[in-house]
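Service request form, structural biology core

Requester: graduate student, group of Dr. S.
Request type: structure prediction, single chain
Budget code: on file
Notes: please return the result as structure tokens.

Sequence provided:
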Amino acid sequence: MAKPRLVLAVSHYDRLVPLLDGTVSAEGMDLTVLAVGQSIPARGGSRRHERMLQGEFDAAEIGVSPYVMVKTRGAPFTAIPIFPRRLFSQSLVYCNRASGIQTPADLIGRKVAVRSYQNSLCILFRGDLEHVYGVPWKAVHWVTSGPEPIEFDLPPDVNVERASEGRSIADRLLSGEVDALAMPHPPAAVVTGEPKVGRLFPDAFAEEAKYFQRFGYPIMHLVAIKDEVLKQHPWVAKSIYDAFERSFAVARDYYSDPNWSMLPWGPQARERQESLLGSDPWPNGVAKNQANMERFMALAREQGVISRTLSMEEMFHASTLDT
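Core staff response, request fulfilled:
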């Protein structure tokens, strides 16, 4: 019997290089792995999430937010517990220094730019404001830089406006039109030493290390597979899961070479990271990530992005539930 021919779209992260370059392969199938970006184009283009939801790929890395939004509506996709992208919110919040913002509480009544209301990082940041720093996120004026990728009804009691076209979010922050921004890919003009802008948390490293002890490393993306593929070849889910696990393992070994990274002090940074976060802050599987996923869904529901949360059995393929 011929092997199924499938296409998987992922971003070009270090942990997925072994999968992308063919060092690691998925058993039992002819799997083409494409590097496809989301907001930043890769060799296979951009808008990976939307293209997956439109049926272009058999499997793809997509945001947790779009996945749970469409899954709660019955979309024909099922995830496997592989989490290629994780982010803390603290180091991704930048403020105009002239705004006088010094603490999270100073964001009350201010304009904060985000990519979209439903963006995974933005959901996390709003939740962190409320539940970690005691700042009611509904007291913040949110400014979205783009449209909402998936149609939904914004809660009536939140202050959200769409930025007008013609000026970049970076320009708006530098001019003071918005007071702060929280984005998974902050504009280059914001992160390259612009003196008018600084992080909300000056020592974001220490803040995130402390946060990790409570919540772990927040999940941003997972991997989804078309239900039509899984119906025909149910074993594909575990095979792809195992391939990702091998890719992560091989990538970790690459860092045993002190010059693998372009960072001159990369080995020392890795040692420091391991002293704070342990040897593997990127665990896959259901058991080590259920609390992380449930927290995210609770925040998404609280913020009106989804109407209900999913059980692990609804979210992930049955063959991966014991991982």
